[in-house]
Specification:
Blueprint (H helix, E strand, L loop, with lengths): L3 E4 L3 H12 L5 E3 L6 E6 L2 E6 L2 E2 L10 E4 L10 H7 L5 E5 L5 H5 L8 E8 L2 E5 L2 E4 L3 E6 L2 H9 L5 E6 L2 H22 L9 H20 L8 H12 L6 H7 L6 H14 L5 H12 L11
Parallel strand pairs: 1-2, 1-6, 2-5, 3-10, 6-7, 7-8, 11-12
Antiparallel strand pairs: 3-4, 8-11, 9-10
Helix pairs in contact: 5-6, 5-8, 5-9, 5-10, 6-7, 9-10
The chain binds NADP nicotinamide-adenine-dinucleotide phosphate (NAP).
């Protein structure tokens, strides 16, 4: 039987673990904070079952498939788990926001591991360790190919849709456009997405997205000129008061993923000699609001 591990079963990792359980697997949960029951509720799922938690990385053994679902800035802190579970041939599915999944994780894993980046579209939250609520459709977008198909197979019959993408870079940049603009503005305003019903905020978000799209195109993403307007039109139509996880972290006073979701735009813009002034303002203001001067580096 395929051995499967989820490192960091919080909102996303817990939902992924729930989907794996529905599909007949018994994932090992690599945790900092242990819990007895894995409870996942949502429109297409309701499970409550004993959780198979491990708190000691030295007790871990190489696994066939590993899902990494800690926040981007927590990746280095999860290094001991990666050392324990990821070896030659292990498929490591990186369920994080941003576009730098592979660059972030490659230096931390054994040679011969197969890295699979995932764009996460899964509105999940955690009310207590192991207690996950899902608010809508659940999807991971991963590159097509042999590894992608093997990952999709693992979720057969579950509520989690796996989209096999022929152009993962474009999919990841579309998500980054949304995260950088919408997440960034809502973080500074400390509010949810109903703020985009204000015409001036909507214009600002659209302009931020246009800058992100220029950088994305330089990185090889195929992003149509009118994409920012279309994304924001969809957002205002569906604005259901959703609060992004980065806003929740800011309100809770804990470090946020601002490096992976905002500073990344400036980092990659610089690589191509592109100026992104609105993103610089947004990123700077988010950075100075981090607790204890958290510099966005991984912990
Ligand atoms: N939530 C969403 O709706 C959503 C949607 C799309 C994308 N995403 C992305 O998905 C990724 C995961 O986000 P999330 O919302 O699931 O975060 P989360 O709810 O904070 O979950 C992160 C989990 O990682 C655990 N963790 C952190 N460091 C660890 C370590 N060293 N060892 C073991 N466990 C560790 C945390 O444990 P503790 O219990 O000890 O804190 C927590 O359970 C992020 O990149 C996020 O941007 C999230």
């Amino acid at each position: 039987m395929t051995s499967v591990v989820v490192i960091g079963p919080g909102s996303i990792g817990g939902a992924v673990a729930g989907a794996l359980a529905v599909a007949g697997h018994d994932p090992l949960l690599a945790v900092r904070t242990s819990f007895d029951q894995l409870i996942v509720r949502g429109p297409d799922v309701s499970i409550d079952q004993p959780a198979n938690c491990l708190t000691d990385p030295t007790a871990g053994q190489r696994a066939d498939v590993v899902f990494l679902a800690v926040k981007a800035h927590q990746t280095a802190g999860a290094r001991a788990w990666l050392d324990a579970f990821v070896g030659q041939g292990t498929m490591l599915v990186i369920c994080q926001n941003g576009v730098e999944h592979i660059d972030r994780v490659t230096p931390m894993v054994a040679e011969g591991a197969v890295l699979v980046p995932a764009v996460v579209a899964l509105p999940a939250s955690r009310s207590a360790p192991g207690n996950i609520s899902i608010g809508g459709k659940s999807r991971l977008t991963i590159p097509s190919g042999e590894a992608g198909s093997a990952v999709a197979e693992l979720f057969a019959g579950s509520f989690l849709d796996i989209k096999l993408s022929e152009d993962w870079t474009t999919d990841a940049w579309i998500k980054l456009m949304l995260n950088a603009a919408s997440g960034g503005i809502c973080t500074l305003a400390r509010t949810n997405n109903t703020v985009f019903q204000d015409a001036e905020v909507l214009d600002l978000a659209t302009a931020v997205m246009r800058e992100v799209a220029v950088v994305g195109r330089a990185e090889g993403a195929r992003l149509a000129e009118d994409l920012p307007e279309r994304i924001m039109a969809g957002m205002t139509e569906r604005a259901g008061g959703h609060m992004s996880s980065i806003v929740v972290d800011r309100i809770n006073g804990v470090p946020t993923e601002w490096d992976a979701r905002n500073a990344v735009v400036l980092r990659l813009a610089e690589r191509h000699g592109i100026d992104a002034p609105l993103n610089r303002v947004l990123t700077t203001l988010i950075r100075v609001g981090e607790p204890d001067g958290h510099d966005g580096s991984m912990t």
